């Protein structure tokens, strides 16, 4: 009995389970019902609206609904099947599809008591990627393993290639060499001492004007006596006096000749076949010598020697020319240079450089070309002849190369070798495109300024300045030359140069030209040039725009004033102008045509003659109307526009 009851109960339970499962399947298969609010078209499709009187239907009066519609009971809400398809089987509309979505209703209260209803459709399920378990199925797949390794190797190979490439670019890129600082003799100025005054008496003035070096002119006849006690004592005093103020000493020497007491000349007289004899230029007795004239006195340059021969003597009585192309004469000059440098001298200038080599077998000189000759000269005048046999001879470049290398070696590059006169023909002193001297003297700048005012003096001065720097820039500087790699000019002037341009104006205009100012000490002292203005100019010379900047020369729109600029990128530019006119016809000058100068200048220094009202240091002036007094100069700075 109990067993049958248990079996019956079990059957009932199983039946219930099967029935529940069947009902659940049926419920899922049946269309689900949902409701939507009827729109106005549905409400009015029976022909009723809110204002229509409700008629009786089937003999009965129908009560109007509270909402004022004429819909029948249950008609306000319509039944939709689960698929959104009407019983008639029509395709669902877009509204029907939206009706199937669940709507999230938000009531958002506002401050005025109203409520805003925000209805949002429930977000659809986002597309998701593969699960971790699905991905792990491919982790050890051979294809994906090889692909991963390939991408790994490619990544690091490319990364390494980029790293090596960057190193190569850095290594192989052109290097921008740092600007070479100027040496002491390039910074300047260099002051020429008065040989008749005591060295100690000149020291205060030298120090006041900030000279980097002093120039002492050794008497010409003492050039080859530097190893004697008298000359040595003088040179030691010179070096020690100015060395206390860290002022370097430069000595001018005249290496062209020796006196009759010189040991080399005496040996030449006694030994006609010796090397000493070849150091001089001879002509046999009984033969007429060439028509070479003396430089220092009237008449022939040939003198009778005690050995009954003619010997060349261009520089005066008892002074006999050395032929520096010969080893004996060249060694004598080198010994003199070593003696000077060994006593503390740090610069040497050679006088009469064009005469250092002579054609010992040369014939008669030819007259100057008629177009170049001075018509007032005759055949007895030195300037009447060309002197091709005794000046600018081939080989001067090689001679100077030996001498300048000696000076640099003896001073570890600190010293310099130069000349005391205009070289005129720089190509003669060059070897393979390098000018074999540290500070050449070249150009007509000083001579043009001596002419003073004139209708075309500004144009001529501009032409000669540009020509001088263009010509000299065609040559490279020697090893210890200027930082720009080009020769550094000497800018020499003396009291004779100031006939038309006063000392203050000359100094202001000259100091920022590319080169080193060289002048006698009395030029500044007697010209009332203040030490403050020279100190200011030296500060300007220490700036990058001067030491490594570009240089260009200009005249104003009417070519009556001369100006130049100094500019290095990233630094203020310098504008230097000189008015050469002596009249008051025009006081402003237009330089607006200068490319990149801007419209305004700031005055930083004026010369002694500058007397324009309300214009001084730190005053701004327009570039198209620069105010200048007659015979005055001005320096201004500007910000370049390019």
Written description of the protein model:
- The chain is of the alpha/beta class.
- The chain has a domain at 257-321 and 359-392: Oligo-1,6-glucosidase, domain 2 (Alpha-Beta Complex).
- Helix content is 31%, strand content 17%.
- The protein is built from 18 helices and 26 strands.
- The strands form 8 sheets. It has a 7-stranded parallel β-sheet. Strands 19-20-21-26-23-24 form a 6-stranded antiparallel β-sheet. A 3-stranded antiparallel β-sheet has the order 9-11-10, with no helix packed on it.
- Helix 11 (327-342) runs parallel beside helix 12.
- The longest helix has 31 residues, at 142-172.
- It is extended and about 140 Å long.
- The termini are far apart.
- Residues 1-16, 32-39 and 41-88 have low confidence and may be disordered.
């Amino acid at each position: 009995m109990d067993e049958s009851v248990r079996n019956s109960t079990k059957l009932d339970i199983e039946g219930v389970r099967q029935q529940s499962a069947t009902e659940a399947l049926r419920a899922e298969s049946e269309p689900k019902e949902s409701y939507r609010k009827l729109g106005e078209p549905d409400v009015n499709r029976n022909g009723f609206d809110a204002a229509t009187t409700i008629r009786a239907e089937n003999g009965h009066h129908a009560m109007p609904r509270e909402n004022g519609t004429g819909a029948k009971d249950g008609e306000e809400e319509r039944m939709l099947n689960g698929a959104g398809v009407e019983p008639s089987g029509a395709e669902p509309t877009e509204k029907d599809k939206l009706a199937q979505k669940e709507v999230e209703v938000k009531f958002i209260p506002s401050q005025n008591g109203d409520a805003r209803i925000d209805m949002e459709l429930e977000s659809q399920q986002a597309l998701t990627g593969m699960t971790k378990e699905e991905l792990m199925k491919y982790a050890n797949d051979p294809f994906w393993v090889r692909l991963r390794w390939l991408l790994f190797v490619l990544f690091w190979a490319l990364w390494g290639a980029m790293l090596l490439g960057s190193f190569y670019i850095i290594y192989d890129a052109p290097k921008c060499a740092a600007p070479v600082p100027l040496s002491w003799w390039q910074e300047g100025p260099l002051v020429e001492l008065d040989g008749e005054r005591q060295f100690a008496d000149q020291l205060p003035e030298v120090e006041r004007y900030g000279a980097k070096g002093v120039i002492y002119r050794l008497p010409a006849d003492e050039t080859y006596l530097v190893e004697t006690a008298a000359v040595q004592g003088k040179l030691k005093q010179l070096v020690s006096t100015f060395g206390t103020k860290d002022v370097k000493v430069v000595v001018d020497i005249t290496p062209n000749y020796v006196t009759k007491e010189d040991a080399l000349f005496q040996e030449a007289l006694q030994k006609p076949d010796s090397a000493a004899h070849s150091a001089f230029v001879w002509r046999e007795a009984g033969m007429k010598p060439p028509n070479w004239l003396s430089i220092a006195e009237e008449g022939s340059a040939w003198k009778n020697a005690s050995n009954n021969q003619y010997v060349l003597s261009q520089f005066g009585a008892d002074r006999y020319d050395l032929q520096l192309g010969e080893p004996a004469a060249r060694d004598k000059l080198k010994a003199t240079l070593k003696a000077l440098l060994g006593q503390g001298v740090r610069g040497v200038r050679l006088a009469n450089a064009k005469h250092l080599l002579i054609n010992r077998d040369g014939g008669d000189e030819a007259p100057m070309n008629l177009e170049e000759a001075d018509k007032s000269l005759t055949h007895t005048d030195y300037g009447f002849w060309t002197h091709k046999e005794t000046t600018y001879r081939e080989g001067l470049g090689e001679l100077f190369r030996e001498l300048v290398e000696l000076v640099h070696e003896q001073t570890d590059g600190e010293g310099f070798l130069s000349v005391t006169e205009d070289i005129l023909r720089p190509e003669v002193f060059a070897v393979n495109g390098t000018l074999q001297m540290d500070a050449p003297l070249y150009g007509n700048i000083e001579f043009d300024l001596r002419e003073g005012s004139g209708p075309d003096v500004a144009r001529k001065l501009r032409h000669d300045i540009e020509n001088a720097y263009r010509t000299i820039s065609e040559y490279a500087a020697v090893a210890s030359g200027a930082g720009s790699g080009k020769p550094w000019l000497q800018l020499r002037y003396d009291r004779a140069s100031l006939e038309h341009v006063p000392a203050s104006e000359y100094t202001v205009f000259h100091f920022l030209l590319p080169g080193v100012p060289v002048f006698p000490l009395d030029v500044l002292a007697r010209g009332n040039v203040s030490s403050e203005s020279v100190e200011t100019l030296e500060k300007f010379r220490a700036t990058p725009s001067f030491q490594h900047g570009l240089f260009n020369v200009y005249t104003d729109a009417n070519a009556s004033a001369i100006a130049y600029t100094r500019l290095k990128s990233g630094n203020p530019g310098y504008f230097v102008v000189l008015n050469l006119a002596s009249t008051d016809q025009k006081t402003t000058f237009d330089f607006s045509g200068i490319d990149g100068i801007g419209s305004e200048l700031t005055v930083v220094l004026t010369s002694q003659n500058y007397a324009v009202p309300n214009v001084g240091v730190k005053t701004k002036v327009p570039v198209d109307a620069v105010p200048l007094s007659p015979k005055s100069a001005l320096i201004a700075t500007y910000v370049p526009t390019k």
